[in-house]
């Protein structure tokens, strides 16, 4: 799945985990499996880290945390490759092909599972700090400041700098609110292609993105994703938060959405010097689109349907054939 398309092309530009191949195959007993393999040291560290996270979840004793995972078949080093082999999880339909009610219920269930895991004592932190990364309010501030420095040195437009530095100030002024909801297990890349649903059971495919942080960071990543892929689900989940959670949680969620939007803008800005042709134009369009989403979020409004549809049209016209193939049934 990750040997062609944009994901493969941009690994050299953006990933901190190193390049790795993710392949489909069959185990010697005929079982369909997913094979993750790499020869790069950073990639090896990422695969090893994911394995540690997956194993650690079964030993967490301070909360109800019920993430299901594919069965690991093999874990080995051979011919310079570091290899992890897990059962392939089939599903009869993708997340976005399910009904809105199903999508809402599964997403909410997953968020509640994450919210059920909070480190509240020194023992809790000692047991898991060495496995999962930790982010507190000062870490979020440091990350945002780093994003802004990258944007300033990348000669982005004045409009983008105004919007992102305004966002930086908002986050600086609300660090206490961010800290209030830190200490939770949160999945920083919780989007449909990182989990599968079989017989009403949600299987998490990516464990490397688990960390202790603000509990609304996984919400923010998911909602920002749904701004593009399912605005009805985004609206329904936001309404749930407004109707059922304290105002302080709504503030925290907004701050995390702002944080993740600055992050994705910076992510694509960093790709521009090393991109060319259609991929360059596509990433420019992405920077523009996510900047417009950020502008709306600052004002507590939603980016217009017209802007979303215009971006989708540009994106689809610039995507390569290999990327179009990769996107089929991905979400």
Detail the topology: elements first, then pairings.
Layout: H1 5-9, H2 11-14, E1 21-26, E2 32-38, H3 41-57, E3 72-78, E4 81-87, H4 100-115, H5 122-128, E5 133-134, H6 137-152, H7 158-172, H8 175-180, E6 184-187, E7 195-198, E8 201-204, E9 210-213, H9 217-229, H10 231-244, H11 247-271, H12 277-298, H13 305-318, H14 321-327
Parallel strand pairs: 5-9
Antiparallel strand pairs: 1-2, 2-4, 3-4, 6-9, 7-8
Helix pairs in contact: 4-10, 6-7, 6-11, 7-11, 7-12, 9-10, 9-11, 11-12, 12-13
Features:
3-stranded mixed sheet; 331 residues; 55% helix; alpha+beta; Aminoglycoside 3'-phosphotransferase, Chain: A, domain 2; 4-stranded antiparallel sheet
Describe, in plain words, how this protein is organized in 3D:
The protein has 331 residues and is α+β, with helices and mostly antiparallel strands. The protein has a single domain (94-326), classed as Alpha-Beta Complex (Aminoglycoside 3'-phosphotransferase, Chain: A, domain 2), CATH 3.90.1200.10. It is 55% helix and 14% strand. The chain contains 14 helices and nine strands. A hairpin with a 5-residue loop joins strand 1 (21-26) and strand 2 (32-38). Helix 6 (137-152) runs parallel beside helix 11 and helix 9 packs antiparallel against helix 10. The relative contact order is 0.13. The model is unreliable at 1-6 and 8-16 (pLDDT under 50).
- What is the count of β-strands? 9
CATH level-four homologous superfamily name = Aminoglycoside phosphotransferase (APH), C-terminal lobe
Average per-residue pLDDT, rounded, comes to: 87
- Along the chain, the helix and strand elements come as HHEEHEEHHEHHHEEEEHHHHHH
Q: What is the quaternary state of this protein?
A: single chain
Order of strands across the biggest sheet?
A: 1-2-4-3
| Share of helix, binned | 40-55%
The helix tally amounts to 14
CATH architecture: Alpha-Beta Complex
